[in-house]
Amino acid sequence: MKNIQKNIGIVLITLLVLISCDSAIDIIQPGELNEDAAFRTVEDLQLGLNNEYFGLNTNEAILISSLFTDETSLGIENGGQNLTLLQFLFNPNTAIPSNLWLNNYQTINRVNRILAASSNITISNEERDDLNDILGQLYAMRAAEYFELLTYYSTDLTDDNALGVMLSVEVPDVDTELPRVTNGEVFAQIESDLALAKNFLDPVRSSSVFITQDFVTALEARIALYRGNNSLALSKSQELIDGFQLADRGQYEAIFRDVESTGVIFKGERTPADAARIAENFYFRNPGIDGGPYMELGRALFNQLDPNDIRFDVLVNDETVADPDYQTNDGLNDILLIGKYEGSEGQPTLNDYKYFRVAEMYLIKAEAQARLNDLSGAAETLKELRDARFADSTEQDEYGDVNEALTAVLNERRIELAFEGHRYIDLKRFNSDLGLQLDRDPVDCEKFNACTLPANEFFKFTFPIPQIELSGNSVIRDQQNPGY
Hints:
two-stranded antiparallel sheet; Serine Threonine Protein Phosphatase 5, Tetratricopeptide repeat; globular; single chain; 19 helices; 46% helix; mainly alpha
């Protein structure tokens, strides 16, 4: 895939449409090539599909989880970067929700165009399987993008009647304006797309960088969990646990150096030619004490890590300076450097986006077991995950009630999935059970009076509809999320 990505950029700049500055759905530009002209062969469709894989990244999810919750603190070279997000200042003009909205709808619109073009090309019998596999990947991709939109912009994924997002599976006209529809309507489309994906996708192809049947199953597991369908989440996650090896300590570390893919169901692969680098969300230059760390590991998260856990070695850069008297010294001598994305291929800030890992499936299974009141089963599942992260066997938990088990699951997710874009949604999902488990150390937050989020501001765990969409789409202006 790396070689394919390097070769398609110039071609697709002229073939594929760019998103409008007025509205996410208003994307037709003067003088552009339409889909019939751009896509005439199966090879053209493959090029178009390859480009859309860039839309499957988790950068905005990583940013909001890292900056708005409790994963990071101000770094030693911070000059005010991200301070507003650390202070919970969040509105329709904030870049993260705007970028996620625009990027996802850009991908959806392009997928819609490729799908529309696919029905108008002539193929040989030998090309049928290739075409079907392309279609399967496109349908799964569209489903994934719509689910991510729902995850961030819907107030309650468990309520099918709650307001969702705009829905379009057609190529829009220049003056198209769409309203938000209900979660149920969007989920119906997602389910339809996933059914088509399973029908069209190559049934045996295995890959961590292309959409496969396993990608669909992982998406189904996550959707089921977020919607509260715990029995389905349990069965879907178990399918993948049965089919994927859980990375051991050495493999786990290698996964985040991008030299190993054990347990990786799907990742958004990046090459040295790509501009987006995950570590640049935390460092001005390169990972390390001399690389311009403007964001660091939050002290409370650091305190949760066990040096005997391989996740400590991955999350904490080797040049970290941890002050045992940090509280007495007000954190001034603490330099807790983020180490999860230290680069690959000789590029110190280049890493792939980990979209689905089988470790998440263990956590989905454990949470579903807890919510189904199988407390010993949840404890056993978490032990299995932890045993793969420690050199010695770990002790199995005993839970007195469901909330105690859910607390253990949330804490394990915090460590296993740190800086992978899950924490923001996890805090939202678990709030009704456990209350907001935002955990910032006073040395990180008292200086700017943002250690807790006021109860009347919990609405900020749902994204606002971006101002750029409200300005260009008159029918959505009365559908802003509560609080904004």
